[in-house]
């Protein structure tokens, strides 16, 4: 594994070069926190982050909070786009509907989504910091919030992704 924050330049010595990002006090006022403003496009070439594509089993971990002024429209907490900027895989938060959706293309090339909802998902939208693990295997997508397993859903095995596009944090889904 590796630390995606560093790969995206979201560290104290580099964040000022990322347009639309500011640093704020974070958890326990010890760890820095980065606010993504509406004009932010936090991205890196996929070939830089995942030159071989994604493995069949992986976990993505986020420590974040949704602020009261966050738009109600869905946004990609993380996603990989192809060279035409079409989404290939990602995690979507819908602040209006209070849901979390994982999506990707399966091994047959079919687009698949699984949406998670309920009280343990809704709580991540109300301003506190939360730790979110999105655990992907060949057959399941599992969500863990604040070290508690919330739900697990069946998915088909993923197809490989193109490394010719970009990976993005916090992009509005329009």
UniProtKB/TrEMBL annotation:
Which positions are tagged coiled coil?
A: none
Q: InterPro entries per the record?
A: ConA-like_dom_sf (IPR013320), TSPN-like_N (IPR048287)
Stretches assigned to the Thrombospondin-like N-terminal domain:
1-174
Q: Which UniProt keywords apply?
A: Repeat, Signal
- Tell me the protein's name: COEA1 protein
Organism, as annotated: Chauna torquata (Southern screamer)
């Amino acid at each position: 594994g590796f630390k995606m924050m560093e790969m995206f330049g979201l560290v104290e010595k580099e964040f000022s070069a990322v347009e639309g990002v500011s640093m704020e006090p974070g958890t326990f006022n010890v760890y820095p926190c980065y606010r993504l403003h509406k004009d932010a496009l936090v991205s890196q070439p996929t070939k830089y982050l995942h030159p071989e594509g994604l493995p069949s089993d992986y976990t993505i971990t986020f420590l974040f909070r949704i602020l009261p002024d966050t738009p109600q429209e869905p946004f990609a907490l993380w996603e990989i786009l192809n060279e035409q900027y079409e989404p290939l895989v990602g995690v979507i938060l819908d602040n209006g509907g209070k849901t979390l959706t994982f999506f990707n293309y399966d091994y047959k090339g079919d687009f698949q989504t699984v949406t998670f909802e309920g009280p343990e998902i809704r709580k991540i939208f109300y301003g506190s910091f939360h730790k979110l693990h999105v655990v992907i295997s060949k057959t399941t997508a599992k969500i863990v919030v604040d070290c508690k397993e919330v739900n697990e859903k069946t998915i088909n095995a993923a197809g490989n992704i193109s490394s010719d596009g970009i990976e993005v944090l916090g992009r509005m889904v329009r």
